[in-house]
Amino acid sequence: MSTPDRDDIGLLAGEYVLGTLDESEHNDLSVRRSHNAQLDQIITAWEQRFAPLALAIKPVEPPAEVFSGLLRRLDSHVRAGDNIVQLQRQVKRWRRVAVGVSALAASLLAYVGFQSLRPAQPDQLVAVLQQSDTSPAFLVSVDIKSRELTIRSVAAPAQQGKSYELWIVNDKLGAPRSLGVVDTQGATVRRALVTYDSTVVRDAVYAITLEPRGGSPTGHATGPILYTGKLLEMAQ
Amino acid sequence: MDASELVTIMKQVAQRDRQAFATLYKSTAAKLYGVVLRILYRPDLSDEVLQDVYLKIWDKAADFDATKSSVITWMVTIARNRALDIKRRKQPQSVEDLPESVEIAAESDDPLQSRELREALQQVNLCMQGIEQPKRDMVLLAYLHGLSREQLAQKFNAPVATIKTWLHRSLAQLRLCLQSRAEGSA
Asked: Do B171 and A51 touch (CB under 8 A)?
């Protein structure tokens, strides 16, 4: 397979903004954009080029109940969000003061009811996969020595006829690589990272897409990217 | 409300100011709803998508960077992306329902638009006019109405691979035109 040159990427980025890429290409680019500043810049440039056309569309007043419904949704959204914001603040504070790993892990895991993880070790990393700062969905734990990965749903709803699939994303790997389908009940534990270099594992972005039942039929992400996150080093 | 006032409002939203959030909605919802409705066509879907968009704006307000984008451009990008996400997941509409060709508004007197944005619209209009038909309509139907390559292939009775080639040529031409106009005015 040939490596796309810079111009191909530029035009693919243009199609990304137009919205004409097929699902797999679109998702690949979404994931790569999240950790590749240069690609993000190219896509942003296309967004800026086209934006005047969207801004020239005639405004249409939405029905009044959209706003009242929005305020109701905001209330529950904020309540749900407060928990994870608090969690993230705790993690940051813990990291800053370099408290013992087990205290951090115990508090973090107890907080989200993630009791099935084994006791934390210095080589244990944890990521919260989320759509936004206020919507945690999965917790990922990686033992960097054994490359064993544990993932558990925190708040991801089961999707009828669909499966969640976990991907590792790192420029060094090229396209995102599947780490397998993830259950929404209980924890999934697997040695899925055993073939990857520890630096790649540490620096990667982890992403969840929604795929047909049983996982992507193509080996590439075909569904929408729902949640992403990076591993936190718990011991510093 | 002008563009600089919107920046102030967005900073207040980033501080979790609900009054500012309501003001932001009142000032911008019609613009975003127009964009979403143009892509989804269905008011029932568009209503919920508009709410999704404002919740995302609430979450991401602190990420807004006034040195990279205007508030309204940033918000419209979020709205388009959400509408396209939903469109990809739902049954696509029939191409028969779509307009034969697409007109771009020559200018807008919308106060949300800064002078820079109005000038940018003129530039992109001029460059779009340089793209020959039906390629121009393909780009506009994709951007404004969210048509996929497959839908464009159906509408223009051409293979998907040809549509892709035409889109790439149009994009390359548009990029070159906009870059040379920007350099010419610098």
From this structure: no
